[in-house]
Write a structure and sequence with these properties.
2 domains, mainly alpha
């Protein structure tokens, strides 16, 4: 089972942020079979980057840049701002909010802020739980456990197949390679806490 030390180090977060999120991230990892050292480490490194070390649960930008983005399902006026990125992996757009609502059994379309409230210090326990679970849902729907299984954590992440696969995971989450060095650094920071773990 995921420990506080593993969560803190792999996300590069402060202890109090990691403590707040720990029960919900453990629940998320159990629910979505993020249950091997490679799966957990890759998931947490990515989540750590996306959330600024388990701090942000809502994107800083207004979301107006997403207005009218049909690829995100933003078909109604105001959808861009309403459905801006929220959760530990920024769930963005009406279509994704609808899909995660169905999967988790909460109406995030009617209540977008249930996915996360600004940052960890302002979130209710329900928002913390939803922020974590929505990240697990996103990871699972993109079949990222399958990619994480291809990473050998006993070998360098900076070269060969490991780097290739890590970049594929990053692209699935980000749409590109934005923040790749930071994501890799979080992976490396967490690595000693996952080696030799059964």
């Amino acid at each position: 089972m995921l420990t506080l030390g593993q969560l803190k180090e792999a996300t590069c977060s402060k202890s109090d942020y990691a403590s707040k999120f720990l029960p919900y991230v453990v629940e998320t990892c159990n629910k979505f079979s993020i249950n091997t050292p490679a799966r957990m480490l890759n998931f947490l490194a990515q989540v750590g980057h996306e959330s600024g070390g388990l701090f942000y649960t809502e994107e800083l930008a207004s979301g107006s840049a997403y207005e009218g983005r049909k690829d995100l399902g933003n078909t109604q006026k105001g959808d861009g701002v309403k459905f801006k990125g929220r959760g530990l992996i920024q769930i963005t757009g009406r279509a994704n909010y609808l899909a995660v609502s169905k999967a988790l059994g909460t109406d995030f379309v009617a209540n977008p802020t249930f996915l996360g409230g600004k940052n960890v210090t302002k979130c209710s326990t329900a928002q913390l739980e939803n922020a974590a679970k929505s990240a697990g849902w996103f990871w699972n729907t993109r079949k990222l456990n399958d990619l994480a299984d291809q990473i050998d954590i006993t070998k360098s992440i900076d070269t060969g197949n490991n780097l290739l696969v890590f970049k594929k995971i990053t692209k699935a989450i980000n749409g590109g390679y934005n923040g790749l060095p930071d994501r890799l650094n979080r992976y490396k920071a967490g690595l000693p806490y996952f080696l030799n773990v059964k």
